[in-house]
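sorry for the late reply, my laptop died twice this morning and i had to redo everyting from scratch. anyway the thing you sent over, i finally got around to it. pasting the sequence first so we're on the same page, its 138 residues, then the predicted structure underneath. double check i copied it right bc i was rushing
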Amino acid sequence: MPAWICDRCQRQFGRKGQTHECAPAMSLDEYFSTGPSHERPIYEVVAAFAHTLGPVVVEPVAVGIFLKRSRTFVELRPMQKWVALCLTLPGRVTHPRMTRKPIPHSGRFYCVLNLRTPADFDDRIRDWVALAYEQSLG
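ok and here's the structure:
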């Protein structure tokens, strides 16, 4: 259950009054009508896995697709040659697809992994998405 739904844009957030760009989410068809061709197949494998974890809200916005429980647990942000999968984890992690140093934030680490194809979404990344999902409730 979300902590807050913005009256203006109807998007859900983990904290009441959370700062955001107040713009309504798009439909998936609207969103994918302008994106790079490599983005949708990656979204489909990540979203299919996320839905096995429990209830998920899919929120396509101008900068990417946010997967939420009560708060965002995965961001998929399109780049020219890959999709950046962003998530917050309880500890520092390493992976060959992680090209940016994890950023400490509120006792956790903001991590970005680059996925060029659906096959890049491996078991280790799935485990981290599951962990981010578990932690996104409170």
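The first strand starts at residue 4 and ends at 5.
thats about all i looked at so far, will dig more tmrw
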